[in-house]
Write a structure and sequence with these properties.
Glycerol-3-phosphate (1)-acyltransferase, 8 helices
C-alpha cells in the first residue's frame, strides 16, 4: 500500500475541490523535532486534515483498536500514521508507541476529548491526555478543527462537501504544571489548560454554548 506522502499527493485535488481546506496559524508549528498537536475531535476526517494543512512530515495518532479490524480502512489508517489504543483501559502498549514515536523525532496528534463529538460542541477534556503530555514534555500546539462535523459527523456513512479549516495556536505554556507531582490532579490541569487554548481558537461564529472544559476527578 502507498505511503502517507503518496496518499497525500493523490488526494490533494479531491480535498481542495470537496472541502476547500485551509490551515491558519501554521507559523506556530515547529519546523523540526518532536511535538504534539492537541485538537478537538469531530470526525474521522480530523487526523488527515491536520496532516494535510500543517505538516510535510507524517504525523502519528492514536485510533481505537476497532478501526484496525476493517479489511481496507485498518491498513489505510495504519499507513497514515495511526496506531491502535484500547479505550476504557490502561493500554500500556499504546503509551509506549506514543513515546517511541516522539523519541524518533516525529510529531503526534492527540484529541484531548478522547472521542468524536455527537453534537459538534466541545467536550470535557480527558486527563489521560494530560498524563501523556506530562511524560512527553515536548512542545504542545493547540488546534481547532472547524467544519469536519458538518462534513462527516459521527453516524454518517459518507462525507459531504463543505469548507474545513484548522487553526493552530502558539505553544501552550506548561512548564509550571510539569513541575508538579505526577498525579491525576496534575494531569487534569494540563488537559484543561490545553482545552482552554483550543477553545480560544474556535471561530467567533461558534463561540456560544461551548462545553465545559473541566472534568471531575
Amino acid at each position: 500500500m502507498a505511503s502517507f506522502p503518496v496518499i497525500r499527493f493523490l488526494t490533494t485535488w479531491f480535498v481542495e475541490l470537496y472541502f476547500h481546506t485551509r490551515g491558519h496559524g501554521t507559523q506556530n508549528i515547529p519546523e523540526r523535532g518532536p511535538f504534539v498537536v492537541v485538537a478537538n475531535h469531530a470526525s474521522f476526517l480530523d487526523p488527515y486534515m491536520i496532516g494535510y494543512t500543517s505538516l510535510q512530515r507524517q504525523v502519528g495518532f492514536m485510533a481505537k483498536e476497532e478501526l484496525f479490524r476493517a479489511p481496507l480502512f485498518g491498513p489505510f489508517i495504519r499507513r497514515c500514521g495511526a496506531f491502535p489504543v484500547k479505550r476504557n483501559s490502561r493500554d500500556m502498549e499504546a503509551v509506549h508507541q506514543f513515546h517511541d514515536f516522539l523519541n524518533s523525532g516525529k510529531p503526534l496528534v492527540v484529541f484531548v476529548e478522547g472521542t468524536r463529538t455527537l453534537n459538534g460542541e466541545l467536550q470535557p477534556a480527558k486527563k489521560g491526555s494530560g498524563m501523556l503530555l506530562y511524560n512527553a514534555k515536548v512542545p504542545v500546539i493547540p488546534a481547532y478543527i472547524d467544519g469536519t462535523f458538518h462534513c462527516w459527523p459521527k453516524g454518517k456513512l459518507l462525507p459531504k462537501p463543505g469548507p474545513i479549516s484548522v487553526t493552530y495556536g502558539a505553544p501552550v505554556p506548561l512548564d509550571d504544571l510539569y513541575a508538579e507531582k505526577p498525579e491525576k490532579i496534575t494531569y487534569a490541569k494540563i488537559a484543561n489548560r490545553v482545552m482552554e487554548h483550543i477553545t480560544k481558537l474556535k471561530p467567533q461564529k461558534n463561540q456560544q454554548n461551548h462545553a465545559s472544559i473541566s472534568e471531575s476527578n
